[in-house]
Structure formats: structure tokens, C-alpha cells
Amino acid sequence: MNNLYLHIPGFLVCVAVIIYSGTKLSFYGDKIAELTGWGRAWVGLILMASVTSLPELITGISAVAIVKAPDLAAGDIFGSCVFNLLILSVLDARLKQPLFSTVKSSHIVAAIFGIILLTVAGIAIFLAHEIPSILWISSFTFLLFGIYLAAVRGIFMYEQSAMIEAPPADTIHMASRSSHLRKAVSQYAINALIVIGAAAFLPYFGEQIASQTGMGNSFFGTLFLAAATSLPELVVSLAALRMGALDMAVGNLLGSNVFNMFILGIGDVFYREGSLFKAISPSHLLSVLITIIMTAVVGLGLLFKPKKKQFWLLGLDTFIILILYIALIIYLFIKN
Q1: Cα–Cα dist 233/200, whole Å
Q2: d(CA 74, CA 276)
Q3: Does pTM top 0.85 for this prediction?
Q4: Does residue 327 have a pLDDT over 90?
Q5: Burial 280-315 (b: 16+ CB within 10 A, else e)
Q6: If DSSP states are collapsed to H, E and C, what string results for the chain?
Q7: Closest of 22, 75, 45, 5 to residue 199, by C-alpha
């Protein structure tokens, strides 16, 4: 138990570092969008999502390759997906108008690909002992990789055809813009590396806290570790909200969930004990199902674009997301 007093501060220090660097990522990500003309939606969807999901990537690899805790890795990934969608409710609560009425409808493409990838992951867990493997890797992992690459290309093509944002203003001299872009990219990369370093230690502290408190890897991974590794998404999204870059915030959150399924496949590659999906507890299927429902609610919100909020600070869509998150956490706690 004495070691617990060392592991908790270590866990909190990693969290604090992620929060600090996550804030920087939002600022420099917005700068890159402005200087390149890629648009905030695209930067949020691909650039921001891949970087803010680095904690999940490093944590997942560390959990399966070093700590040998597949349930901790799965709980982190699926819990992160649920927590990312919860952040949409947080953003909605801070706006006067419903969130989904103020952002592009094109985000629905990322939501649909997210549902497809989650469904494939759920099937891989449910049929883990019946699915053939290539070496130690589940054949469904290659399917996840293929769908992810198709998602990136499909989302890019759709965003490019739907993009209505103007290119960067010509008031900045080309040489000056190039200098500003190099600085933004370098600062972005530095903070990304800091996030990676902090995230590498999270699974160790998480495993120790889970085992010493008796919370269990599935519950701890889904709640605490997922919330910690999703802090970059939360910090980046709130910073984007303050800058008025809502499309970057929503693109970051939905894109992170798409990238998380890619991370699940990478975890299977690094887990040399056999197929990762065979080692994952079927209890994670509930998290997968809840995430699919929450993502479908997001898609409906983007499609219908409600004009007013029905539940005080929240619209009906983000209120349902909040209720589903609370229900999942309560169930996992009771079953723990």
C-alpha cells in the first residue's frame, strides 16, 4: 500500500504534463491550419486527432508489450472513445446555440467510419476464438487497418470537396509565412514528443493503482486511464472553443475515435502472447456498443442540426450522450 502513495503522484504528474502540452498543441495546430490553408476541420480530423491520440497509442503499446495487461489497453481505448464523445457534451454546455447546429455536416463522414470500425472491433472480440490468425495477429486487425486507411482517404476527399474555408490571407509575405509555419510545426512536434513521454508511463502507474486498490484493469482502464489519456482531446477542444474553432474541436474528437481503432490493431501487433482480441474480456463489448450508439446520436445531431437546447445547457443529442456515459460507468463499477 505504501507504493500506492508513489504511484498516484506519478500518475498525476503524467496527467499534468499531458494537460500542459495538450494546450500548446491546440494553439500551434490552429496556426498550422491558418498558414497552410488546410482548414480547421481537416487539421482537427487528421493532424490534431493523430497527435492527441498519441497517449492512447503509447499507453496501448506499453500496456500490451511491457505490462502485459490487455484489458488495461482495451479499457483505455474504448473508454477513451466514450470520453471523447462526452467532451462534445462539455462543449455544448458552454455554447448558447446547440453544438451540432454550428459545425459542418461533413463531420458525419468521420462518425460513420467510426461506427464501422467499432463494429468490426466488436465482432473481433465476440468471435475472437473463431477468427483465424496470421502468425499471432488476428485477421480482423488487417481489416481494421484497411478500413482506417479507407476512412482517412474518404474523409480527406469529402472534406476537400466540401471545404468552403478561404485560403490564408496574402497579407503575410511568403517568406514570413514559411518562417512562421516552420516555427509552428517545430513547436507542435516538441509538444507532441512531451505528450508521448508522459503517456509512456501512464500504463505502469495505472496497472499498479488498479491492482493495489482492487478496482480491476477493465474498470480502471475505462474510467481513469481513459480520462487521463483523453485529456489532450479535452484541453485541445476547450482551447479550440475559446478560439472559435469548433470544427477543429469536433473533427479532433471524432477523428481521435477513428484513430483509436487503428491503435487497437497496433496493440494486437505488439501483443506477442497471441491474438489480443482473445485476451480481451468480453465485458468490453458493452463499451463498444455504447460508443456505437453515442456516435450514431452524434450523426443524427449533425444531420438534423437542432435549433434550440431542450435540456437547459444541453441539446437532446448531447444530453443522451451524457446519460449513456454515466450509465456505462455505473454499470462497470457495479460489475467490477
Answers
A1: 17
A2: 9
A3: no
A4: yes
A5: beebbbbbbebbbebbebbbbbbeebbeebeeeebb
A6: CCCHHHHHHHHHHHHHHHHHHHHHHHHHHHHHHHHHCCCHHHHHHHHHHHHHCHHHHHHHHHHHHCCCCHHHHHHHHHHHHHHHHHHHHHHHHCCCCCHHHCCCCCHHHHHHHHHHHHHHHHHHHHCCCCCCEECCEEHHHHHHHHHHHHHHHHHHHHHHHHCCCCCCCCCCCHHHHHHHHHHHHHHHHHHHHHHHHHHHHHHHHHHHHHHHHCCCHHHHHHHHHHHHHCHHHHHHHHHHHHCCCHHHHHHHHHHHHHHHHHHHHHHHHHCCCCCHHHHCCCCHHHHHHHHHHHHHHHHHHHHHCCCCCCECCECHHHHHHHHHHHHHHHHHHHHC
A7: 22
- pLDDT value of position 37: 65
Planar angle of CA 31, 34, 36, nearest 5 degrees? 105
Give per-residue pLDDT as tens, 8-60. Answer: 888 888 888 877 887 787 778 777 877 776 666 666 667 778 777 877 888 88
**Amino acid letter, residue 261:** M
Of 231, 276, 284, 219, the C-alpha closest to 61 is 276
d(CA 306, CA 285): 31
The amino acid sitting at 260 is N
Judge whether 276 and 269 are in contact, CB under 8 Å: no
User: What is d(CA 328, CA 334) in angstroms, rounded to the nearest whole number?
Assistant: 10
